[in-house]
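Long-time lurker, finally posting.

We've been working with Peptidase A1 domain-containing protein (Fonsecaea multimorphosa CBS 102226) and I want a structural starting point before designing mutants. I don't trust myself to interpret raw outputs, so I'm hoping someone here can both generate the structure tokens and explain anything notable. Sequence follows.
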Amino acid sequence: MYLLVLFCVLSAASASASALPSLQAQDAPSYVALPLTRKRSVDSAAKHSRRAFSSSLSHKTPAHYTIDVKIGTPPQALSLVLDTGSSDIWAYSPGAESSCPKCTSTFYDPTKSSTAKSRDDLGLFNITYASENSAVLGYYVGDTLKTGGVSANMVLGVATKAHAGDPPGGIMGISFSANEASVYQSDIKYPGYIDSLYKQGIIAVRGYSIFLNELIPSPSRHRHNSDTTPGTIIFGGYDKSKWTGALVPFPLVEPSPEGAIELDIGGPVIAFVVGGETFSVPSNQKYTVLLDTGTTLTYLPKSQFAAIADALAAELYDAEGGLYAVSCDYASDPGGIGFEFANQAGDDLLIAVPWPEMILPDSGLADGVCMLGLSPMPDGEGFYTLGDTFLRSAYVLFNYDTLTVGLAQASYDNSCSDCVQPLIPS
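Top reply, 14 upvotes:
Generated this for you. Predicted structure of Peptidase A1 domain-containing protein:
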């Protein structure tokens, strides 16, 4: 294990970046770069997993990552929660019925848009995320959606009723079309956001990259790495300054019946350093991996989770949500958790996650007590879910055309004049 070395230099070894042939520059840019803003949750009952028809657990979500959009003509401004684990884009309607009134304070009114068109052909909008109690009901419209100065014609869900755990503003799902609610309701697919950008010639490759940035910037970081605008998503492109070491490719699993984005990585070896002592916990069976910005925590097999929880003296405080409390003092421990992966070519990758990314404040706990950013996988779950507590330490490049995902250790300090480059077809 080289976990201690990695936490010193924060670099991942092995594999050539050329293993991802789509990383090439071209003269004419063809990408859409947008800031990701980390916002505190306005509803304490937000679901831990936005994946459709998945686990029924829930928890107090500390924050969401949002994208600013403008819908319709004239434009109506909204902030939508980014979700790589679902595929529908939806916003609240005026007067939407919700158990979270603050969540519906911003909304989209299609009757005020001259470019809105009914999409009754798709049936009723009806999507369920983490449990039956997270259903969102409404109808479909077609309208323009503007992000970062780029407009695209989109199908949108307009929510008239939503249950506990409602996200503020709505959801911007960017997963495969196979995961759209209309597929389950009427067996009809429509072009999602990525497909729409591609078909309208805005991007050359159906792909995007994500950099969430660190949760708590260290004193040496620049001011632009503040908590208010911590990250970036680039549709059709990537930022070569935002990772260190190799960008290692992993194959995407073909869209499952649930339509989730899963990687064929196999169960990673988990190692962690706490109090200067190193522990290694291999996986005892193979799992696929789900990367999901709509999930706050990271979910591990029970054996791996138990080893970490025991070392941190973690205590269960929310059985329904699977939430564990630890001392906030661990946030100042210089160690962390290492996730060691290997792809089919034998290339190794180690993503180091420092403890400050895994020790989260929770207003419902006593002073000096924090929430652990890990939880055991629900019974019967056949995949790891690597949520925001993992993704903040990784740079992720999704390519739907080649069904690959590139992973690397995130870098927070680098910059260059030509950092952002478009993806071009392989």
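Before you design anything, note these points.
Residues 290 and 385 are 5 Å apart (CA to CA).
The first strand starts at residue 32 and ends at 40.
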